[in-house]
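Posted in: Protein Modeling Q&A

I'm a second-year student putting together a small comparison for a lab meeting, and my supervisor asked me to include a predicted structure for FAD-binding domain-containing protein. I've never done this before, so apologies if this is the wrong subforum. The sequence is pasted below exactly as I got it from our records. If anyone can share the structure token output, I'd also love a short note on what stands out.
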Amino acid sequence: MDICVVGAGIGGLALARGLVADGHRVRVLERAAGPTRGGAAVTIFSNGAAALTDLGVELGTRVPVGPVPGGAIPVSPAAGGFGPSGPGNGQPPLGAPIETLTSVDARGRRIMRADLTVLWRHTGQQVRTMPRAALIDRLTAGLPAGTIRYDTAVESVRAGSDGAKVVSAAGTDRYDVVVGADGHRSAVRRSVVSPAPAAEVGWDTWQGLTGVLPAIAGGRTGLLAVGTAGLVGMMPAGQGRTQWWFDVRRDDGPTGRRARTPVRSAGCGGGSPGTPNRCRSCSPASPTPTSGGTRTCCTRSRTAGATGR
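Accepted answer (user: helix_wrangler)
Welcome! Here is the predicted structure, written out as tokens:
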């Protein structure tokens, strides 16, 4: 079939890889001028890593399956993948493995500790945190040349008895199937479901990828701190970087200059030796730098009741 995927984010690219592998003719339309490398980092749990392995995308090193509480699920090497342990397809690991996830309250008292190696042994797949840009690059690299058409904003989708017509900056094209993977401002959703904008759910999230906090960046433990105002999280993300974020309710969260001040004081504004020297907000028109060493990625987004990118 001729299939159009609108949006070249993680979901859209993963779907495109699966459809291409099944023999479909796939076109991905992306409004940005190039790969959407903005954003901080993402954590892929074992089930997501297994799905990516089936798509030919290796994130890390497989681990031997062993006994776990309740018994282990036998894992077979994925097609084009690798055996019970060792890297696959010559692809170097992305990011950093996460072995434990610890949650504490606002005073630092432990609430719980999750042993994620149980998932490793259960599935043979690690839990890993990695820069979003690195995952986007790896997903993109496996697609046939010309699959993605950048700088092509979709304006509307019209369904008919003979398929669907996609109206974009490049013109009007017909497809058998159209899939909307274009985020909470989805043009596909507006055309097919409702023209009303997605409803915000009342939370703001700030996220960053920063070369600070070496004890976190060099470890294998993720830390979550929960308080009355919201949640703060930190994860090692590889290459000496820490993925950090905090989520606050809209009514409780600082806005404008009040919000930027504590972010800068945490190393996001530069000025002190060894800390990143650049921070700016991320938007589709202004991708956020995510390279390590000299830059910090800071992203603020308002969560909405629709699938994100």
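A couple of things worth pointing out for your meeting: The CA atoms of residues 202 and 250 lie 5 Å apart. Helices lie at 10-21, 46-54, 117-123, 132-141, 187-192, 214-217, 256-268.
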